[in-house]
Specification:
Layout (H helix, E strand, L loop, with lengths): L11 E5 L2 H9 L2 E9 L2 E8 L2 E5 L6 H13 L4 E10 L9 E9 L14 E2 L2 H14 L3 E8 L23 H7 L4 E3 L2 H10 L3 E10 L11 H28 L3
Parallel strand pairs: 1-4, 1-5, 5-10, 6-8, 8-9
Antiparallel strand pairs: 2-3, 3-4, 5-9, 6-7, 6-10
């Protein structure tokens, strides 16, 4: 289905990878309605705790995220929160835990199409604080720190590919990331953060660990917690923004 312009979107928009996750998010809101489509994905707007929010699925990978960011930004969004899934790098990060990315190692190739590799990929600090506060309020196990963004699910993380293919550059990749304290893998965070930096968008990311670090088994039970934390974070940001606006109005010029 061809992309068509989105309807007006609220300030805060969630960017899950899948349509299924977007549908589950919207089911928890009030006054939900469709806001148009981007490619094959349907976007929604609604209210969570009285706060206007939107959701627009991106699909997988950095190029898909960049396309979606362009559309939701033109539709009015100013705060973008990725709600995704991840695989852990650190032993302390367990299946079902949430990882809130303060920054991303730029191992992808998409973000370098926008800014040189020397530019950092950094989250907005207020979005990070809103996500952390939400996780703490809800009692959800979480970790805040640097993630790594790759361009391939397997080779990009040093995992052997089909028929056992691997090359020498893959041998130390995961151990190097672990030694550096990097928490998790994904394929979207670095491009999102780079676009946010030069397009004046507030961006953050919360991912649920869905791959068992020892067996590799897939278990998505943490996704519901990631959705709950994202919804609460949007309410936190709305409250903090309102307080800041009131403070500015009350401050003598």
């Amino acid at each position: 289905m061809a992309t068509r312009n989105l309807e007006a979107m609220p300030d805060c928009v969630f960017l899950p990878g899948s349509q299924q996750r977007a549908d589950r998010m919207a089911e928890l809101w009030d006054d939900v309605r469709s806001a148009g489509r981007v490619g094959d994905f349907e976007a929604y707007v609604g209210l969570v705790g009285g706060v206007p929010v939107g959701v627009c699925p991106t699909g997988i990978g950095g190029s898909s995220v960049c396309r979606t960011v362009d559309h939701v930004r033109r539709a009015g969004a100013t705060t973008l929160i990725r709600v995704g899934v991840t695989g852990t790098i650190q032993p302390k990060v367990h299946l079902g835990d949430l990882v809130i990315a303060t920054a991303a190692v730029r191992l992808d190739k998409v973000s370098t199409q926008y800014l040189p590799i020397e530019a950092p990929a950094v989250a907005d600090p207020f979005v990070v604080m809103a996500l952390v506060a939400a996780a703490e309020d809800l009692g959800v196990p979480h970790h805040a720190g640097v993630g790594a963004t790759q361009s391939s699910f397997y080779a990009g993380g040093g995992v052997s590919c089909h028929a056992g293919y691997r090359h020498s550059g893959m041998d130390n990749l995961e151990s190097d990331m672990r030694a550096a304290g990097v928490l998790d893998w994904d394929t979207e965070t670095a491009p999102l953060y780079v676009l946010g930096m030069f397009r004046n968008l507030r961006c953050g990311r919360v991912n649920a660990v869905v791959n068992h670090p020892e067996t590799g088994a897939y278990d998505p039970f943490g996704e519901e917690q990631a959705i709950a934390v994202a919804n609460r974070a949007a309410q936190n940001l709305h409250l903090w923004d309102a307080r800041a606006e009131t403070s500015r109005e009350e401050t003598p010029s």
